[in-house]
Amino acid sequence: MNKFLLYILPVVLFACGDPEPVSDKADAGSVSDTILLSQAQQDASGLQTAVVLLEKISSTVRCNGVIDVPPQYLADLNPPLPGYLVDILVKGGESVRKGQVLAILEHPDYVELQRRYLETRSQLVYAEKDFKRQQSLYKDEATAAKSFEKAEADLKMQQAAAASLAAQLKRLGIDADKLTPDKLSATVQLKAPFSGFVVRVDGAIGRYVGSDRPVIQLVNKEHLHIELEVFEQDLESIKIGQHIRFTVLNAGSRTYTGDVFLIGPTIDLEKRTTNIHGHVDGHHDFLRPGMFVQAVIESAPVETTTVPEGALIRSGEQFFVFRELSKGRYLRLAVEPGVTNQGRTAIRQGLATGDRIATIGVQFLEASYQQAFETE
């Protein structure tokens, strides 16, 4: 109870007369009593009333989570073969386009791989000619089947070796079909696989880096989404397409929006939660993967009677409102509230559309009620 009201209430009641308790049994089965205030008491309390409305309201599920990106839009770029960094062409936070050269590495093994490919390709040319020659002789019965079979096996072996080396060169960004002895290169380039932003650069000129160590990390923020943790008891209220409102922790009061596009199929056995994934509406330069968010998931609106959240008084496990019966006459009425959304609370039971209730000065009415019936 508001201490200030308790201090001033005896003075107001002394000056204006005690509120008169009036038993009202019109609402059978409800816990209710009526008080009558004088005009002076009404003026002192600043009482205001409003009509109970029938309007649409959404149930809400509050949850926490993080901003994330799908795996295909987050890339760790490491050299396909170990090498020495000879140039780094970007820095953290910089925007890049798909195919842009981000770093250059050097190592003698790069040249050796190209040399082996050219050697294998030459051997493949010889193997193809020998196979055709042995095939022709075999058809004319001028050579043994064993010689033909050996030529066929050699051809297949050289084809496999050339294909394997060509695949390795492709990983280095070298087009095997255009490779010639006078175009061998000791360097390879790390290129951006998609347009986005550099998250971090982990390297320095001259550093030896292995193929298992990322040098540059990229992210494409065009596909940001939020990953939320929802308790299993709330899952029944979650549906694909539901509206999401969320804020970013320690980043002001700005509210972002989105919608549910994926509901996790499993439950975390320890936390009893599942993951909900949501799209983010629009493009926001400020948002970053890993940011912590506080979110509200809204269900489809349902039409019901609603009252301002501040009109409710809680006493123990029950909730009450003060319904105006006539000027200065208020009935303390037990109600069953439902969900609250944006300052409006649904009332499942206890009120009807068109009832007039107190919305401001409710604490004054509760204090008056308590004093009147405690001293009755």
Give a count of the beta strands, DSSP E runs of length 2 or more.
Answer: 24
Give a short account of the largest sheet.
8 strands, antiparallel
From the alpha carbons, calculate the radius of gyration and give it in angstroms: 38 Å
CATH topology group of the largest domain: OB fold (Dihydrolipoamide Acetyltransferase, E2P)
User: What is the domain total for the residues?
Assistant: 3
| Distance between the first and last residues' Cα | 19 Å
Helix/strand/pairing class, anyone? alpha+beta
Question: What is the level 1 CATH name of the largest domain?
Answer: Mainly Beta
Query: How many alpha or pi helices?
Result: 5
Task: Determine the mean pLDDT.
Answer: 84
Which ranges are low-confidence, i.e. pLDDT below 50, for 5 or more consecutive residues? 1-18, 20-32
User: SSE string, helix = H, strand = E?
Assistant: HEEHEEEEEEEHHEEEEEEEEEEEEEEEH
Q: Which term fits the overall shape?
A: elongated
Can you say what the CATH homologous superfamily of the largest domain is? RNA polymerase II/Efflux pump adaptor protein, barrel-sandwich hybrid domain
The helicity comes to: 10-25%
CATH architectural name of the largest domain: Beta Barrel
